[in-house]
Design brief:
There is one protein chain. This protein is an alpha+beta fold. Helix content is 41%, strand content 25%. The protein has ten helices and ten strands. The strands form three sheets. A four-stranded antiparallel beta sheet has the order 1-2-4-3. Helix 1 crosses helix 7 and helix 6 packs across helix 8 (186-196). The longest helix has 14 residues, at 124-137. It is elongated, with a radius of gyration of 20 Å. The two termini are 36 Å apart.
Length: 259
């Protein structure tokens, strides 16, 4: 059992914070919905025969979200295209952060173990060799059963990370409070439904179906949508509100509107 407490948190300015286990659990929740953890190789024009390798964590998201990630964990946030930014953390800081995520990131255990092996190597040539082998074999997520996610959902900071990444709240006048999540990580949302209630259905987006033989259509990587309404929605938001890093004001406004 992970030692964890859930007091009401009064978070200072994120630029002045040092990441703690609440922040790590929150970041892990975000990366269970998307993001990249891997390795890259750099070449040096003034040293033709030299290569270096480094591990990284990255996520493409909005400017506000990538700024919070940068302020909490370091790294840099750069624009990729209109309304799309990329947060990247690399080198020793990426290793330290990834290793701390191990307890809360079941789908990333294989790559985190590679980070650990990378960190044990002393010579850059060995780090480059390890990186090339890793990239050749591909980055594959570990399959995760719903029971394992169900266990992690007892930690509000982990659930808050999921909400900050893919959650929305609708508190329209004269309508029940409604919270929604959408993700291709179906075991995660199924576990959330079992723990917090609500209903799920498969959402098929344009361009996600391919025609196979015998005129059959198959949905490629379909997403699942989870909806909680009224009391179920309120219970979830009250549980995670003090752990949110990106949507706390919006959630608190929604909850205050119920009073």
């Amino acid at each position: 059992m992970i030692e964890y407490q859930t007091p009401i948190r009064k978070t200072p300015d994120v630029k002045e914070k040092i990441p703690d286990m609440y922040d790590v659990a929150w970041l892990s929740g975000i990366f269970e919905t998307g993001g990249s953890i891997g390795f890259s190789i750099e070449t040096w024009p003034n040293r033709p025969n030299y290569e270096s390798a480094y591990p990284y964590l990255s996520r493409n998201d909005s400017h506000d979200r990538t700024t919070v990630l940068k302020d909490l964990f370091g790294g840099r946030s750069q624009i990729q295209k209109i309304n799309s930014w990329r947060w990247e953390l690399k080198g020793p800081n990426a290793i330290e952060t990834a290793l701390s995520m191990d307890l809360f990131s079941p789908s990333r255990r294989s790559v985190i173990e590679m980070f650990r092996e990378f960190d044990r190597e002393d010579l850059m040539s060995k780090k480059v060799k390890l990186t090339k082998e890793f990239r050749q074999n591909g980055i594959r997520r570990n399959p995760v059963c719903e029971d394992e996610y169900f266990r992690l959902l007892q930690y509000p900071a982990f659930t808050a990370g999921i909400f900050d990444a893919i959650g929305t709240v609708d508190n329209a006048p004269y309508a029940p409070l409604r919270t929604q999540f959408e993700s291709t990580n179906q075991p995660l949302l199924n576990a959330m439904r079992e723990r917090f209630g609500g209903s799920t259905y498969i959402r098929v987006k344009p361009g996600t179906q391919v025609r196979l033989r015998e005129a059959k259509w198959v949905t490629v990587n379909p997403s699942l949508e989870l909806t909680l309404a009224a009391e179920k929605s309120q219970e979830l938001l009250e549980l995670i509100s003090s752990h949110l890093q990106m949507n706390r004001t919006r959630v608190e406004d929604a909850l205050n509107g119920l009073k």
